[in-house]
Amino acid sequence: MFLFDGIMFLHILAAVIGLGAAFVFPVLSRAAKTAEQARHTIALFEKLALLPIAGSVGMLITGVSLLLLEPALLATGWFIASLFLFFAAQMLVIGVLPKSMRRQSAALEAHEGEGVPVEYRRISRQTARVEMVTHLLAVVLLAVLIFRPF
């Protein structure tokens, strides 16, 4: 049981590392008031992007390890639901959000002024919707993992 508990601790730690950084991104994005601040925000995103990736990989590795130690988890509804929620969130985080960041960066590079470009703001609003869905998936995932409703 010590091994299971140790891996569970690492699993939770990976979630905190990955989710904590991801929840900060929208706050930083809205804070930019000038093009220079927006460029700085994009640079921060590029550096901070490693945390959600590391957290996601850590959650995947430790989750599979927990499953190998306790195969009966596959017979529980909450575990199957948590897998679905995790992979749905990952599809957005890996497939959609990086493209949006590249589009924002391109809008900034093409801009020659002090204010934040209209295109950057438009992309930010679109990205905020995807981030909101991702955060909702994460909160529901946490609730399913903690309360195990089925």
UniProtKB/TrEMBL annotation:
Transmembrane regions listed in the UniProt entry: 6-28, 48-69, 75-97, 130-147
Coiled coil: none
Protein origin, superkingdom: Bacteria
InterPro entries per the UniProt record, alphabetical: DUF2269_transmembrane
This protein's record includes keyword NAD: no
Record's keyword terms, sorted: Membrane, Transmembrane, Transmembrane helix
Name used for this protein in its record: DUF2269 domain-containing protein
Organism classification: Bacteria, Bacillati, Bacillota, Bacilli, Bacillales
